[in-house]
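The instructor's notes for this session suggest beginning with a concrete chain rather than abstract definitions. Hand out the sequence below and ask the class to guess, before any prediction is shown, which regions might be ordered.
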Amino acid sequence: MNLYERFLAQDMRALARAITLVESGYAEGQALLRQLRGRGHARVVGLTGSPGAGKSTLTDRLIEEARKRDERVAVLAVDPSSPFTGGAILGDRIRMMRHHQDKNVYIRSLASRGALGGLAGATVASLALLEAFGFDRIFVETVGVGQSEVDIARVADTTVLILTPAAGDAVQAFKAGVMEIADVFVVNKFDLPGGERIVQELKTTLELAAPRPAGWKPPVLTAVAPKAEGIPELFEAMEAHYQHLQKHNLLEADRLERARFEIESVIQEWGRRKTREGQELIARVAHGDLTPEEAAMQLLGVLEGTRT
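After discussion, reveal the predicted structure:
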């Protein structure tokens, strides 16, 4: 059987191979994606927060909760890439290894590959493959730095922001504008000092925030992931938000925004490749012989005097 047939036959190795081909940008991967895109429909949950917030441990517990409900679960853990080598740590799977023998759980690390917001277009393409494979729920865990929180809201149906007490997380959330995009807030490590304070800060700020689509009011929950405390409540909140999207016909808009993000990511990646090839033009910009716009138009193959 070819890769497409093996994929449809639920061969996990075929799924892994398909994601690798898509992530690496091979034509074979794009052809396979074209055949499979649009199959299946999963609940996509974005999990984001600052490093050390306990995202991976929380994800591990959410996998457990989903399996109790007989859901097939996939996880995409997006790791930061080095801006110098392009390499990534890809270490999140270590914390979720207890699920590795469960055939209804698939965990994959992806490199951000220098994407400006921490999410690469390959992440969305991989989501399409996981949906086509028949997973019911897909968790996307982001690096939690830069603008990745904002990007994940464009990709996920439900965005969960994970904060911790006594780490200045609330202040950072307010500054970064993440308050406007998170659908569910959870204060993890709630057993540490300062837990009640950050919950009250979040609730007060949300009362002053702009109204959400169709009147959704983001809940503020608490959890202690290693002890599995607060996990069922968090899962129910995620489900309530998804039901809200269904009731108000907002899911189609989510899908369109996800496609828009994927196209923009492809354009960004193409532009980065072009700049690596155009050293002479870059030198001319540095010396003042060309404006950045003129150089960009030449790199993109736009004829002089035209605009697209």
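Then share the key points. The longest strand covers residues 43-49. The beta strands are 43-49, 73-79, 105-111, 137-141, 158-163, 184-187, 220-222.
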